[in-house]
Amino acid sequence: MNRFADRLAAEGLQLRRARPEILQVNVGKLCNLTCVHCHVNAGPKRKEIMTRETIDRIIDWLAKTDIATVDLTGGAPEMIPDFCYFIERAKGLQPSRHVIDRCNLTILLEPSYEGLAEFVATHTVEIIASMPCYSAENVNAQRGEGVFEGSIKALQLLNSLGYGYDPELPLHLVYNPIGAFLPGPQAELEADYKRELAKHFGIVFNKLYTVTNQPIGRFAAYLRHNNRYAEYMELLISALNPATVSGLMCRNTISVGWRGEVYDCDFNQQLGMQWKNPDGSGLFLWDVEPGKIENREIMTGDHCFGCTAGAGSSCGGAIM
Question: How far apart, in Å, are the Cα atoms of 181 and each of 5, 21, 178, 184, 214?
């Protein structure tokens, strides 16, 4: 049973792909953190990382399209051996592609990654950084002891390189609720963040994105452990906002897994909802004809209520 599809039908809505504008690549599940809200179940012991061969095949496919943005995520994308190589290849295309790094901040301070902040700045890589709160207590509860302090140091480092100041070096933060509830109004939270981070740490950034926690992966395990999964799902379902459907990220974003497999979004990716060939076998990016993506039907499930609840939720924050 797909309650989300049933609700769309009841609202007279269809969810189909628009023209692709973003290629979001999950380069692996290796991460230096084990955050409670993580839908990927990423962590230091994960072995899934993208190879250079796969990167080359993705770049070769991208070169045949007019998709302008490459959005690198993980895990901690910086931890794969060919992270810098991926960026250099994407930037070397004609025309050059805009690259986003979804960064957990603390990785920039790890001993093996010195100079990484300078590298992304030199290559004008946009940073979207996870920062679930502006208080140490809340951040450390969700992401691990000491993570808040490390995040502050990393943000100060990025500011020193021009991030948040230089228009070519945008720095955005991501807020996830610390618990089983919906985010507050994005504009109000952004004002709070900017005031508190500037006042106490001298930090500046461009935008705050509010993202609803998805009931999958490690967050789903957290909900079940606390007997709150059904309650959270009912919250999401009751808060469905039909006006968010046209702005969902699955409409203009292609999600690619660490082996090159293709999905409608990163959440579908973690649930194994891979695009299929007519014979039922899984599709990889290099098997997809770029001109046949638009108007493709999007695969959905109950987790999709997480992106359509309240003001909506996408990789770029609230939809409404």
Answer: 23, 30, 8, 9, 11
| CA gap 156, 3 in Å, rounded | 45
Task: Identify whether 317 is part of a domain.
Answer: no
Q: How many CB atoms lie within 10 A of CB 33?
A: 20
Q: Is residue 320 part of a domain?
A: no
What is the distance of C-alpha 27 from the center of its chain?
12
Per residue in 140-197, pLDDT tens? 777 777 889 999 999 999 999 999 999 999 999 999 888 899 999 999 999 999 999 9
Q: Which residues contact 225 (CB under 8 A, 6 or more apart)?
A: none
**Residue-level length of the chain:** 320
Domain that holds residue 105: 3-308
Give the Cβ contact number of residue 197 at 10 Å: 19
Helix (H) or strand (E) holding 89: helix 83-92
Q: What angle do CA 128, 68, 28 make, to 5 degrees?
A: 50
Q: Would you say residue 316 lies in a domain?
A: no
- Residues 134/196, Cβ–Cβ less than 8 Å: yes
Eight-state DSSP code of residue 73: E
This prediction has a pTM of 0.95
Strands 207-210 and 171-175, how do they pair? Answer: parallel
Query: Residue 318: inside a domain, yes or no?
Result: no
Number of domains in the chain: 1
Residue 57: which CATH number? 3.20.20.70
Residue of 313, 314, 301, 311 lying closest to 7 (CA atoms): 301
